[in-house]
Design brief:
Blueprint: E1 2-7, H1 23-31, H2 46-66, E2 67-74, E3 77-85, E4 91-94, E5 105-109, E6 115-124, E7 129-134, E8 156-161, E9 173-183, E10 187-190, E11 202-204, E12 210-217, E13 224-228, H3 229-234, H4 236-240, E14 244-245, E15 261-266, E16 269-275, H5 280-284, E17 291-295, E18 298-299, H6 303-312, E19 318-325, E20 328-335
Parallel strand pairs: 6-14
Antiparallel strand pairs: 1-20, 2-3, 2-5, 3-4, 4-7, 5-6, 6-7, 8-9, 8-11, 9-10, 10-13, 11-12, 12-13, 15-16, 16-17, 17-18, 17-19, 19-20
Helix pairs in contact: 1-2
Length: 345
Amino acid sequence: MTRVLDRSTPTLWTAARVGRLPLSLGLALVASWAPPQPRSNDVLAPAILVQLEERVVAAADRALAATVGLKIRENRTEGDGSGVIVSEDGYILTVAHNFSRPGTRIKVYLPDGRVVDGVGLGRNERGDCALVKIDGDGPWPYANIGDSDALVENELCVMTGHAGGIVADRPAVVRVGTFTDRARRYWLQTDCAMMPGDSGGALFDLDGNVVGINSYIEQRVDRNFHVPVKSFLDDWERLAASENWNAARSRSNRESGALGLAVRTADGGVEVQYVFEGYRADEAGVQVGDLIIAVDGRSVSSPSSFRARERDLRVGETATLTIERDGERLEIDVEKARREAGEDE
């Protein structure tokens, strides 16, 4: 069942570039970078604060020089994402949910204002890892790959991405925060405030090395999740060979209990990339290009959060999807399908 709620305009995210960091920000950074069990008489000298500020600024400069915007057009829809160049010959790390299949043509927005062509290579959907290659041999500006396993709790880090989407004459946006946890034994968690458009951007250590790739956010501003760069290194050969694995399953091998949708991150929610013919979402009237902003009143901001809401449903239960379509806000009821025999959970 479909219900029209209201008409609205798409949410627009904006952000200003962080350029040179003032000493006052350095003081704030140190306040959040307290070592474990500090002594009450510990004092940080002004010279140390200046050195810290210089390291942050240097890392941000290296990060900006290698961060790119990605404009992807698939299934008659266009979306913006981010990436980071990690080799002189133009290999770019990004996330799998930025494009759905190898061979996708991509416009790459370089930090110097040039726009060049690239192509999507391999992708691991479950791990949210993907590789893009710029056409031509370069040389291209790039950042070195660091060691994501070496991160320690409360370590300062720098994050870049095209927050809110690619904006003409605006570079990638820099944020500074701390590494807080290794979430769910895979993801890196930080308090660097991530926004739509940042997906595929990079997390850097203070030496300017790439340690993670921006993946998804939760409702709290301090819960931002990144793919560890080690995952890309572990699967480099498969990614470079344009393999596509752990992908959304087809009708003959659908994901357990799925509503019958493939989605990608978009401003304000998740965008429907594909509706599996004959399944519950198709029967309920969900369409490619719909923006899903909530499931049963609970907001979704990434494919991972959408799948989490989906898993919460029992077979036969009905989920109410809050959707924006052509300026209208709709509610569509979709029943969760029963898992087919012999399929993996």
